[in-house]
Amino acid sequence: MWIEPDLGDWSKVNDKMRNGQIVMLAVVGLLSLGVLMVHSAGMSVEGGAAVSQMLTSRHFLHALTAVLAMLIASRLDAQKLLMRRGWTNPLPWAMLIAMGMVVAAMIPGVGLTINGARRWLSLGPRSWGLTFQPSEMVKWLMVAAIAAWCARRQGMMHRFVQGILPPLILVGFACGVIVIEDLGTAMLIGVVSVGLLAAGGGRVWQLGTLSPVAAGAVLAAIMHSPYRLRRLTSFMHPWEDPQGAGYQALQSLAAIAQGGILGRGLGNGIQKYGYLPADTSDFLYAIICEELGLPGAALVVVAFLMILWAGLAIVRNRNDVVGRLLGLGILLTVGLQAMVNLGVVTVVLPTKGIALPLLSAGGTGWIMTAAAMGVLVSLDRPTEEGQMLEIHPAVGVAPA
Amino acid sequence: MTQASPSPNPQDNAPPLTTTPTASPAHPGFTEATRGLQLAQIRFRRFTMLATAMVITMTVGFVGLLARVVYLQVSPQLEISQLVRVQQQGLVDLAGRRGSLLDRKGRVVATTGVAYRLYVDAKIIEDFWTFSQQVGQHFGYDPQWILQRLSRQPQNRFIVLDESLSDERVQQLEGFNLPGLGWETHLVRHYPLGPLAGQVVGFVGRDGQGLEGIEKLYESFMQGRSGGLSYVRAANRMPLWIESQSYQLPQAGKAVQLSLDAVVQAIAQEQLGAACRQYGAESGQLIVMVPSTGEILAMANYPEFDPNDLSVSTAVRRRNRCVTDVFEPGSTFKPFIWAFAVEWGLARPEELIDCHEGFYVSPEGRRLRDAHGYGLLTFEQVLTKSSNIGMAVVGQRLGEKRLFAAVSAMGFGKPTNSRLPGESPGLVRPLAKWNHYSETSVPMGQEIGVTPLQLVRGLSILINDGLMVTPTILAREKEAAEPAQDELQIREQVVSRSTSRILRQALRKVVTEGTGQNANSKMYEVFGKTGTAQVADLKRGGYLPNAYVGSFIGGAPADKPQIVVGCFIHRPNAAKGYYGGTVAAPAVKRVIEEILSYMGVPPLPEPTDKNAQNKGTLAIRD
Question: Within 13 Å of residue A108, how many CA atoms lie on the same side as its CB?
Fold first, then answer.
């Protein structure tokens, strides 16, 4: 993988935009594959989304919107927006609204119940098919919040009370609310936040001390909910109930096995005809493996690695704390989420309601993730000279 | 802020960056700013390190997951492959149509067609009562009967209501959709001629395999080879597409053409049935054979059996007793011994034989009686009057060995090679077990067991120039199931042509002057021999009282026999009559008249002279 060798050399115009372009290329590629495969996986005996109408379908519209969102987001100056002082900083407000919606989604009648979990809100009329999970919003906002906090408190992050405790309380609260309906997203938010705090200056041992607490919380959440426990046991012993709890895992394995190295060919999959549940969303990767074989499976992984490494180069070229942490947070979120999804599909991890970013069907998911990618791209620009010395006054060192 | 202030950050204790050229004690404020810059750089370096480590970790994770995918693609669990096969592969059997059975003129005797089968999946029916009512009313079944069948097997997913729907019910299927009710097509064997030659044709089992009769005999020839295809199906079991190269064409079986003629068979069954009913017989057989070729034109059994209606038949009824059952023939056996006595010069037709006025004691002390006592009879008259004593006397001249040789030469005691299923070889005891009784018993058809087919075949040999013939149920001339290799064989001369001619004359006299006058026809010169045998008591030995087999074997026309007919009436009501000349001869006469007319054999001219009536001779035709 390509690594920017010279950290200081970000002034050359030709090099400057390259990483962003790589990210955008990967995003557009993944979205295109997503639209294609969602339609292929959506084929059914009864009809369903006709492949012939792919270019006029809502999935295609969602993908176009997602690309548009990415382009718009790439024009933003995230650093300026997040570092605003006082009431004009949108971050606290957005976080409040998002948390409010998480709670609202859990209220019967307001939230939608899909696949037994009440964690969706409808955007506009139901017929648009635009549902979204407020927890997804919290996921991205938390990255921004921690990045902003670490930027403000740089130099103090090694302290527990002034440094990492306040963001940890926020993370704990958010995860505590989200975990009620969505353990997977809560765990993702938790892990990304801790990683980000460590990268932002937090002591690893301090954060590590918290891990038993986090593990206990996760365990409690699992034990508290019978279906999570069932998922866990069925993950470990899928053959005990092949038609029930173990069904999804076995069908996913069957899809991958049937495709083999070469795959059945685009559109030729069988598992999508009622065998594999959630074939267009959480288990789309299994369908990709079945139809496109190893080339398709590898293409997806390569696209994500392109985003990770080009993103890392962007981040390393930043000289401002908020930009660096924001970028890293986005990378961690996308990377870990994709890994968890692949882990679930390949039955390395128990089943979770975690989508494959930019591929799994879901209009708002695509749009929000693409927008986050846009933010990452927006970081791929030179910071002003002075910003490098932007050090919080509490440390006592002010730029000259 | 001074350098002396304790630093809370261990990073701050890192050795000062000596490479920083701006660090100069002369400008403390600037030094502090530089120190801050240094700390920021350290923090950035730590960040870079951690970020890179995280991305590397994720990269390793991704590569690992991809490796996992490859592993799952290349060597999936065996159970996964089985799961896939079981849940996704649907199989369709395409049955190969069974070959038809045709009579010698190409009329269809048995054929295979498509039928609709109506079945019920009891497991998915919510309410048996409602279902039974709906189905019963729509198709006209008894709802109570459906309800009973469902209640008996509430978990059965395949309860057949009707194996073969009638045409009206098939039409009613259109648009009638009720969960739990299903129909499918399947091949059924159909016998358009019904009970015609039912026991010969036999029948097939539920899966179309031949179980009895011709259906069993030529199973390998007639059976179709089933094909099939496998298809991929969706989870709701709807077929998606046919798997490539899985389609195997079914192959229809070949048709078999029988020697039977449906018209002749109908005549035979009609007359046999009429005779049996008239005399209250328990059972009866009637065989029509072409003497020159051995082709069986008709093989009738009474009571009749319709292969379309297996369920209402008994095993005894389904048996082709023309070949399976053995009985003591009685007087119908006399021509065989008579012919050999003449053939071997041990008796001449015109030689006078002392019949001892109807009561005779053999040298060994056996007492014999004739129904009518005669004094001296020519040997020919012994046959026409059917004298037991006359035959016994000549039988003693032949002796055990020659008698045995004659019986064997006629093919008794061996299967006729007709290959009809269940054919019995008959009962001829080995020579070693013969005794002095045999010399007198065998010539009059006792102490010996034969099948009706053996008798008819035997007569065919004797009256057809003494040429050996093998009975066959297959049409000889047309393309048959197996090439008739028998035709290439050189046929054995069992008795000489002259003996054959002499016997024909004698048998003609049986009909014109002797015991078989009831068989005498105005249309054709019928010849033949009557027989009245007692039924042996197998349990206690001896014979059953009032149990007889009245029979007649004969043929026509006498100068050039076209057909040989044997009619056997088992256990007629003795009060109504039991002599072969009474119960069997008239039936044979009518059968011969009808069959020869049908075959286009010109009848005798109308008699102009009243004296010529009942007095036909061999030379009467011109």
Answer: 1
Residue B234 to residue A45, Cβ atoms within 8 A: yes
Inter-chain contact B84–A301, Cβ cutoff 8 Å? no
**Length of chain B, please?**
622
Is-contact B195 B108, C-beta < 8 A?
no
Contact between residue B584 and residue B554 where contact means Cβ atoms under 8 Å apart: no
Q: Find the CB nearest B62 among A155, A254, A301.
A: A301
Distance from CA of A199 to the nearest CA of B (A): 5
Residue B534: strand, helix, or coil: strand
DSSP label of A155: T
What radius of gyration, in Å, describes the C-alpha atoms of chain A?
21
- The minimum CA-CA distance between A126 and chain B, rounded to whole Å, is 28
The full set of domain ranges for chain A reads: 18-41+58-383
Report how far apart, in Å, the C-alpha atoms of B423 and of each of B86, B283, B419 are: 48, 18, 7
**What single-letter DSSP state applies at residue A288?**
H
What single letter denotes the amino acid at residue B76? P
* Cβ-based neighbours of B130, under 8 Å, separated by 6 or more: none
Which pair of tokens denotes residue A84? Answer: 């605003």
User: Could you tell me the pTM of the whole model?
Assistant: 0.67
Bridge pairing between strands B543-556 and B159-162: unpaired
* Chain B 65-84, residues with CB within 8 Å of chain A CB atoms: 65-66, 68-70, 72-74, 76-77, 79-81, 83-84
Is the Cβ of B44 closer than 8 Å to some Cβ of chain A? Answer: yes
| 3-class DSSP assignment, residue B554 | strand
pLDDT per position as a tens digit, B119-165: 888 888 888 888 888 888 888 888 888 888 888 888 888 888 888 88
Which ipTM did the prediction report?
0.90
Per-residue pLDDT tens over the stretch A300-337: 999 999 999 999 999 988 888 899 999 999 999 999 99
